[in-house]
């Protein structure tokens, strides 16, 4: 019996999430994500399909369930083939052989899918559900039955849809998961149909939603409020088409806005960093606008909003960003007034007053830089460095004595890009050269190579994003570019900016800022400054 | 009296949308978006705040309401200042002077905001609402009252929240919009509180939701289902923090899944292209996963899903992509089987059968290219060109006879990047040179310059995205890069891919494919091939 308000989190980032366009996890990626999810505290990790996908078979051969501290490992497959015998079904047997203690199988709940896609009879589909679950239960597995297209099926043929889950219950399924596989169902329908399913079976229900109508998270919350004891979702909402219900939204919502209990809630402050780390492994840009965990989730730009947030954060924040390990950010923009800028300056230099010469000097500088094309949104670190330089609070960690970048590409010849950089630190010079996949890459390589001699901690940071934007200036002939670089250490992501008519110069500026900012932060942490 | 099922669409892309991090519309951008929204058929366009933002003042001075065919132009502001006189309030008068026929003003419905942020009395806030609306009505404006933080206010002090909207009704407001300004309210609460508001006033209600809990669209749909006659939202969900309710989701949902009537529904098939065009003007990457309009919204990757969709699209699509002007896409990936690839080939060459030598040849080629690091997801055009080349169906539009790219950057010296390219078309050679903001930009410029002599239609296309990804290969020393280019003409967006250890070569490959694909498509349309 499940405790009244307990809700289980079932993660399928590695299976349904891997169906997302642009995602292709390596074995190594899968192991990293699995460990991360387990530490975060999800209850189930659906790690792949050992019945058809060679990479997933390799995963189950390599990664043993016993390595997990919190979560149960789940192997995913389907009911046996129509008219076959379950004991001879290679797919079903692969679930047992995977070594995972839990098997999730999907079966058809929509009559159309049975007759048109499986091309078998409605009765045979019920037999398939019955045989497969009973066989897996006899092999001592915990069995999750995913009632595929349950909502679409229920809307067309409620009697048959209910029969499929009643059959799963009779066969001994431990969980019955109602799936809105196509993501087409609206909230009121979800609520209504979950209630109907709850009347039909006693087995604990789960809910699995897709985002094709933009309501995956709302539907999941409603499913839980109407009685589902488990929800399935993925980190960052990865999944086929428009994605799956997003765990990084659902965990904070259920924990902070309802009285349901999740095991992973104790790690809620880690959710922003886990979300970013998963996106890094998946090699997908992190969704800036993501609720709770996005870089913009607590970013304030409107002048009036900023003033109000500074008076009382609750005025324009539905929750405190610290609860989910995220940060409040006050953005610079033409909409933000002087008092906003001063508040930002005061975080760096608390003694600067609104009417001081220093404040005016910095504001004039910002105006000039914005006119030149700089934008400090998403480049807080460059802003901070600029303020410190204006106030003579900055520290020189290195001087660049020389830099040369050269690239040459000719038709049918070998191409080359290399950089030579000379730095000076505490009177010692270091010259380094590096080749690269193009000039910026070469430059980045050479600069780090030279600086690592003095600052080995630079091994811990890496470039996570590099964006170039051509600025829409009046003089079209001399169009400037703005380069935005995102750098990450283990615990932090920071942005820097550079502007020039030459992409290499702009990149260089953002690159140098990113390194200087990191070295300053490291030093401050050690209390040396 | 509003017809029973009629719902009004109130767009605030230019006002609340402009509060999004990374968005900064120029006057020219605003005029383009305004025209686009009007043609699409939204009912109201909230174009900016003429009371405080200089750019918005310039907009209202330049753009006249009479230019709109479908929509009413709205100027946005707030109730008068505490303890002031409305007739002397410069902000309120600016709304009248803007020339817009509709004024939207926000007023406080949450008692905490009145006492802590405005720092006035609860009674004075009611006076501010009363005076301001009455004054604007006396000036013959249609008045929209945005009850800011109505839901948060109602949860803390329902009596006062209701008083604010009853006051707005007494003052003569034409619309009362219930705002979930902080985006923190969950669907069941929204439904309940909208019902309560409906009992308190007779004025038509609107709903305005933010996405901080990931449920902005669900809340908006529920608001409409519970009686709101208007919803506010933005194109692509742009807006402060996590964004506003997304019009590109809401319009298809209400039109295709409920019996509500929207004026813009007649242009529903334009919504994907309008959405992309707005993102282009905003200079934001289009959200690939966006419901209905995203590039991945009808993209199928899982092998079983693909087989089913080919049997019956309804099996894994909640609506037909044609209804919203989007396309079904079958993605190539390790999960997709041979039959999927063959179906894709058959769209280009219908005579190729599954067991033919041609099909096997192409499949072998795909495997080899994927091994080399190519990924045809998002690069359908490169896939199509590759198939045509394999089947000798391709057409040479040009030969490249030579290309040279050179860039040189030195410490404290002028930098340079230029490209020289020679092409041959029908025996005629053309040499062109171009400088650029870096080598790829120079190369793009020179290639187009040379080819435009023969193909002036190339003036109509432009690069909309350029992405570089370093591939995770075993030999770290020779890491390959994959370049993905997105190109757009007026009606279409297409993707191409290039892979090489050298970024310039990879870019070159994707660039040439993008142009060749366009020229082929143009020629096919004219029926010449």
TrEMBL record, chains A, B:
UniProt keyword terms in alphabetical order: Acyltransferase, Amino-acid biosynthesis, Branched-chain amino acid biosynthesis, Isoleucine biosynthesis, Transferase
Source organism superkingdom: Bacteria
Cytoplasm is among the record's keywords: no
Enzyme class: transferase
SMART domains tied to this protein: LeuA_dimer (SM00917)
Pfam families membership: HCS_D2, HMGL-like, LeuA_dimer
UniProt-listed GO biological process terms: isoleucine biosynthetic process; L-leucine biosynthetic process
GO molecular-function terms, A-Z: (R)-citramalate synthase activity; 2-isopropylmalate synthase activity
Reaction(s) catalysed by this chain's protein: pyruvate + acetyl-CoA + H2O = (3R)-citramalate + CoA + H(+)
EC number(s) given by UniProt: 2.3.3.21
InterPro entries: 2-isopropylmalate_synth_dimer, AIPM/Hcit_synth_CS, Aldolase_TIM, Citramal_synthase, LeuA/HCS_post-cat, LeuA_allosteric_dom_sf, PYR_CT
Pyruvate carboxyltransferase domain segment(s): 7-272
Annotated metabolic or biological route of this protein: Amino-acid biosynthesis; L-isoleucine biosynthesis; 2-oxobutanoate from pyruvate: step 1/3
Family according to the record: Belongs to the alpha-IPM synthase/homocitrate synthase family.
NCBIfam families from the UniProt entry: citramal_synth
PANTHER family associated with the record: (R)-CITRAMALATE SYNTHASE, ALPHA-IPM SYNTHASE/HOMOCITRATE SYNTHASE
Name listed for the protein in its UniProt record: Citramalate synthase
Gene: leuA_3
């Amino acid at each position: 019996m499940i405790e009244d308000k307990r809700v289980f989190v079932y993660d399928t980032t590695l299976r349904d999430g891997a169906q997302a366009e642009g995602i292709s996890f390596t074995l190594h990626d899968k192991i990293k994500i699995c460990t991360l999810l387990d530490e975060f505290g999800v209850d189930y990790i659906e790690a792949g399909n050992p019945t058809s996908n060679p990479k997933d078979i390799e995963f189950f051969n390599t990664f043993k369930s016993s390595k997990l501290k919190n979560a149960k490992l789940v192997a995913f497959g389907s009911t046996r083939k129509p008219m076959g015998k379950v004991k001879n079904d290679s797919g079903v047997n692969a679930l047992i052989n995977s070594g995972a203690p839990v098997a999730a199988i999907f079966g058809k709940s929509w009559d159309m899918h049975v007759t048109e896609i499986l091309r078998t009879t409605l009765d045979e589909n019920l037999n398939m559900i019955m045989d497969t679950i009973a066989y897996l239960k006899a092999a001592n597995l915990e069995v999750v039955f995913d009632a595929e297209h349950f909502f679409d099926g229920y809307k067309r043929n409620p009697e048959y849809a209910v029969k499929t889950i009643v059959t799963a219950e009779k066969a001994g399924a431990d969980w019955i998961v109602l799936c809105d596989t196509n993501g087409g169902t609206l909230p009121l329908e979800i609520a209504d149909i979950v209630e109907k399913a709850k009347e039909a079976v006693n087995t604990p229900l789960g809910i699995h939603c897709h985002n094709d109508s933009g309501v995956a998270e709302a539907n999941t919350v409603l499913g839980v409020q109407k009685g589902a004891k488990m929800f399935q979702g993925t980190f960052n909402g990865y999944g086929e088409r428009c994605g799956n219900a997003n765990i990084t939204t659902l965990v904070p919502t259920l924990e902070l806005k309802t009285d349901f209990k999740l095991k992973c809630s104790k790690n809620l402050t880690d959710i922003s960093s886990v979300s970013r780390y998963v996106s890094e492994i998946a090699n997908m840009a992190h969704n800036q606008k993501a609720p709770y965990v996005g870089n913009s989730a607590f970013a304030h730009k409107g002048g009036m909003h900023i003033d109000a947030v500074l008076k009382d954060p609750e005025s324009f924040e539905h929750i405190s960003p610290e609860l989910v390990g995220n940060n409040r950010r006050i953005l610079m923009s033409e909409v933000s007034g002087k008092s906003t800028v001063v508040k930002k300056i005061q975080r760096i230099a608390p003694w600067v007053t609104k009417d001081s010469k220093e404040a005016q000097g910095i504001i004039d500088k910002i105006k000039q830089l914005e006119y030149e094309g700089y934008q400090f949104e998403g480049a807080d670190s460059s802003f901070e460095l600029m303020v410190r330089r204006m106030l003579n609070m900055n520290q020189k960690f290195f001087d660049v004595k020389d830099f040369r970048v050269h690239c040459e590409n000719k038709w049918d010849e070998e191409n080359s890009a290399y950089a030579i950089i000379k730095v000076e630190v505490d009177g010692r010079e270091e010259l380094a050269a590096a080749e690269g996949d193009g000039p910026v890459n070469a430059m980045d390589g050479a600069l780090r190579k030279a600086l690592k001699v003095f600052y080995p901690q630079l091994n811990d940071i890496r470039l996570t994003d590099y964006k170039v934007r051509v600025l829409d200036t009046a003089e079209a002939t001399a169009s400037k570019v703005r380069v935005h670089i995102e750098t990450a250490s283990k615990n932090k992501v920071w942005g820097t900016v550079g502007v020039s008519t030459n992409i290499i110069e702009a990149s260089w500026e953002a690159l140098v800022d990113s390194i200087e900012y990191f070295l300053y932060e490291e030093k401050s942490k050690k209390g040396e400054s």
